[in-house]
């Protein structure tokens, strides 16, 4: 080996340490180590697998940043976009074996999940699962269980979500430095329990998560805890306490400039005010929420705000409602269709337009059937 050339194995060990900081959301430590590794790569013996491993970890690092805090607040500049990193990984993934194959599919699943392409996310996670035997680190296994549990929840596969989140939680709770993940496990437990209409137990998980998030001083998680508590009350038709918690979520996100989380909270506040007949308040939140959706390039919530426009402001506009449902069908977002079709059905029922109401109740039933059928879609080969 030439003098001054760094062995790839040494850099590989440092990348492993970098990943440990990423998994514990230790942003400053992860940033420092990433910078050190970037310098060492310039003097490292050539190793194509190690370079791909670095690209994968850079991808995972960016996912952490995008979730935890906005870049402006972290004062991190010139971060590559996830799409750029994804293209780099895709162009270098030939002849992958074992652990690298696991990471390619696992991280790509996370990327698809962040885009709300949930079936695609689970498809990649299932490919990663085939290589899980190569993963010796029990914390890494917990990461896998946690991520696939999240995706199963959004596809309303409650049984599979709860099995996996239980597996993840039992590993994390034995550690001293994984409080962020423990908080997130409580979120996943809670939302699944809401789907089972066990609201009291769900609220316990959300309140415990809120207390932990406040102790950790993580604004994103505090806001999310408030949002989930609001959702818990909303699903019980307790609209006033729901609004109180959604308002707290909005205040937390806005004060910390966590704008990516704002469209979701604004959407439900807007919907509640429309349902209560408070159209002036609804219009105010509608305008702000739609602006946030556009600012953050959140196409899903932009379409949902357009749905509210079609239902409540355009007296109503059937073509606009159907455009929204077609968009959601194209993304296999049948859980969202179920929720929104139910809103339309109830709206028409209260207006005594029973024929139209019945047609949307049928769409609710069809969406539920599609959710039940969706499990087989995860086996698509990639």
UniProtKB/TrEMBL annotation:
GO terms for cellular component: cytoplasm. InterPro entries: Bac_ResReg_Asp_Phosphatase, TPR-like_helical_dom_sf, TPR_rpt. Keywords: Cytoplasm, Repeat, TPR repeat. The keyword Heme does not apply. TPR repeats lie at residues 223-256. Its main location: cytoplasm. The keyword Ubl conjugation does not apply. Transmembrane segments: none annotated. It is found in: Cytoplasm. Pfam families: RapH_N (PF18801), TPR_12 (PF13424). Belongs to the Rap family. This is RapC. It comes from Bacillus subtilis.
């Amino acid at each position: 080996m030439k003098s001054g050339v760094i062995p790839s194995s040494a850099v590989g060990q440092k990348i492993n340490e970098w990943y440990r900081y990423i998994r514990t959301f230790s942003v400053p430590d992860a940033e420092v180590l990433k910078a050190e590794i970037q310098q060492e790569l310039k003097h490292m013996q050539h190793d194509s697998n190690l370079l791909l491993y670095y690209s994968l970890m850079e991808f995972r690092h960016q996912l952490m940043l995008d979730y935890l805090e906005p870049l402006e607040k972290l004062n991190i500049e010139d971060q590559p976009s996830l799409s750029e990193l994804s293209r780099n990984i895709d162009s270098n993934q030939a002849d992958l074996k074992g652990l690298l194959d696991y990471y390619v599919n696992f991280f790509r699943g996370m990327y698809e999940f962040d885009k709300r392409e949930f079936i695609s996310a689970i498809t990649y996670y299932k490919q990663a699962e085939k290589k899980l035997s190569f993963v010796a680190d029990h914390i890494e296994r917990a990461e896998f269980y946690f991520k696939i549990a999240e995706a199963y929840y959004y596809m309303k596969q409650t049984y599979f979500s709860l099995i996996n989140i239980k597996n993840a939680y039992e590993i994390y709770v034995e550690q001293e430095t994984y409080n962020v993940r423990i908080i997130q496990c409580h979120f996943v437990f809670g939302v699944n329990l809401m789907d089972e209409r066990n609201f009291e137990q769900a609220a316990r998980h959300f309140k415990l998560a809120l207390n932990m998030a406040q102790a950790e001083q993580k604004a994103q998680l505090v806001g999310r805890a408030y949002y989930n508590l609001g959702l818990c009350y909303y699903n019980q038709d307790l609209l006033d306490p729901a609004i109180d918690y959604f308002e707290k979520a909005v205040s937390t996100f806005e004060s910390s400039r966590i704008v990516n989380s704002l469209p979701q909270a604004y959407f439900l506040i807007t919907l509640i005010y429309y349902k209560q007949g408070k159209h002036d308040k609804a219009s105010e939140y509608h305008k702000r929420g739609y602006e946030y959706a556009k600012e953050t390039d959140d196409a899903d919530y932009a379409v949902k705000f357009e749905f509210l426009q079609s239902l409540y402001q355009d007296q109503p506009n059937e073509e606009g409602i159907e455009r929204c449902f077609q968009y959601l069908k194209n993304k296999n977002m049948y859980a969202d269709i179920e929720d929104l079709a139910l809103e339309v059905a109830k709206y028409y029922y209260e207006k005594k337009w029973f024929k139209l109401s019945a047609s949307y109740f049928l769409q609710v039933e069809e969406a539920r059937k599609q959710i039940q059928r969706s499990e087989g879609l995860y086996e698509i080969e990639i």
